[in-house]
Structure formats: C-alpha cells, structure tokens
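Need tokens for this chain, all 382 residues.
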Amino acid sequence: MRRFVDDDAGYLDWLAAHPDGFVINTLRKPGPAYLVLHRANCSAIGGLPTYGRQWTAAYAKICGDRDELEAFARQGLGGEATLCGRCLDRTVTPGPHAPPAHSYPVPQPGSAPARPPQLERRSPRTAPSPAHTNIGIATRPAGPLFAPPTSDPLRLDVQPRLASWNTAGDPDQVRLQAFLAAAERVVRPRLETLADPLVLRLDVGLPPATPLLDQHDLDNYLFPLVTHLAKRTGRRFVSAWATKQTSETSWVRVEQARPVHGSPIFDRPYTVRTTASSQSSGFKQQIHDQLSAANPLPDGPVWLQLAFTVGPQRNWTNLWKPTIDALDPILGSITPGRSWHPRDGRIIELGLHCHIDAALGNDVIVTITANQPRTGSGYAQR
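Here are the structure tokens for all 382 residues:
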C-alpha cells in the first residue's frame, strides 16, 4: 500500500504499473469523513486532472489491493470506504421515478395560497445519526424538511433583485438595497406576530419575455433577502423557498417553521458530506465527486430541495451557492469542461432547509433532491 501527496508523477506511474489495483481518494490528512474507493483505471482519478487540477495536491491517493485498502479505512482510519459510482457498484440503487410529493404548484398572481399535498407515509424506520451518515444515495434527509409557507402572501412593491458583490454605490447595489429595505418594511409587521424558527417564501415575478430557464437563479434572490432580514431583525430562519414565473407581481410569505411529518417520496435523492471550507474549491469538488453516480435530469424545468445538516457554528446561508455550483452532474453544465457552472437557471422552485447537529463540528451533510414538474403542473416553458 502506498500513499501519494504532491507527487503526481509517482502516482501516475503507480497507476500504469497496477492497472488491476485500487485507489482511495481522501484528504491530504486522511480521516473517516472522506474515503472514496476507485479502480486504478477509473477515469475519475486518472488521466488528465479534472478541471486542470493536480491529482495529489488537494487530495491524497492511497493505492493498493482492495482488501487492504478497505481494511485500512476501517482499522486505520475508523471509517468505511464509499464506492465510486463510475467504476464500482454501489450497495444501494435509486428507486423508480416517483412524483415529487413534497413539491407545491407555482402560484399565479392573485390566486389563493396553495397548500402542499398530503405526504405519503411509510413504515417507521430509524434514521441514522447525521454524524454517521454514509455518503451516497439516500431515502430521506439527515434532518427535517419544513413545509413551504401557505399563509396570505404579502405583495412587494419593489421588484426583487439578485445578489450583488459590486462595491457600494454601484447601480446594482443601489437597486438591491432599495429592494431589501422595501421587503423589510412589508415583512416586519408579520414577523412581530411569529415565534422562531421561521420559514420564508419568495415568489419572483418576471417580465413576460423573460426566458425562465436561463439565469435569474433563485438562490441569488433568496440569499440577500434572508441574510438581510436575519441581520436586521435578529430572527432565525431555518428554511427558505422561492419560485419564479412570468408575472407583474412578486410576493413574499413568512411563517413559523413547520416540520414535515412522515417520509416524503424522493425522486432523485443523494446525500453528500463535506469537510472543506465553503469558501474553497475543495467544498465544491467533494460534492461533485460524490455525485459521480447521479442520474442527470433531462432538459426542462427543475424543482430542487437541499436539506443541510450543520454544526452550530456554521452560517448555513453561505452554503447555498457553493453547493448548487457543484450540481452539474445532476443539472448539466452550461459550458462542458468548465467547473462550477451548472444549468441552475432552470430551477423554477427551490426549497432550502437547515438542521443543527452539534456532533458535526465543521462538517456539512447535504441531502439533494431534484425532480421535474409533472405534465399538467401548470408550468409553461418559455
């Protein structure tokens, strides 16, 4: 068994000399949280480095026979090697296609608030502790989901604005700050009647000529609004929802968070675990690598839910964008071969959830559920 760090030449020589061997991809300092087992000839860990990376810089490679590597993972590191979805069979396979029972219809302007359909209940089962959740395909999130708000919507008199990282005084920043101030004025009276924790829903209305499946990313509408309200009011948001549609009007709802009871049917559920900082490319790369067996969604609109389980020190809103940036194995890529540019503009409904587990420390567990609207759902592609 050999370990390679900062030695691409030696690692590639080992692969060439041991085509029937196996490789564990892990962190520079190996630990139980991230151990993925590959065949030596797997395209995910050999050939040209993905996205121009070095193979043995951000990650170490431990090479040898399968039995000794799996024994090392268990006995030497106290973990289990997760099987690569490209070159090794997984122990669990995705279930058949099922309608997204937890989704709700995109609201129409002036319509009565929609209520989520009744969730199908399954036989009780013991959920694994998030601190011991295996990376791979999941049947339920590590933490609870929260129902989307269904109370009377509050009409926004200023058009929602996308997040902007430009300097203060830039026109995009000026428009964003005007929207945030207006939204706060609308929401504050409702907030004063509610107890924590909270859930927010933003229904974005866009001009009729807007291509709904291109740009106008929903997480970039939610992030500035949720962070602004949390900072200005001191309130705790554990779930955020957004939709987009062609409409002259945008709406916002806020309620006390209501956990969804029962086990919703997931169409394409995956659970991943990350150990890297969300500000680093390693955070995205770990998610991307663990989704190597994901089934890409066909073209068209997408409903997406992300359930985050985090330690108490994590700011979960900072995880939204880098997580979605890593979902090109599911959403497809705008520019094939270019990293972190998924086709996330086609997400027309987004649900985000947060669960705190003190045992996680700085690790993050994310359950990813991606579905497509059923025929007759009322969505018209433009």
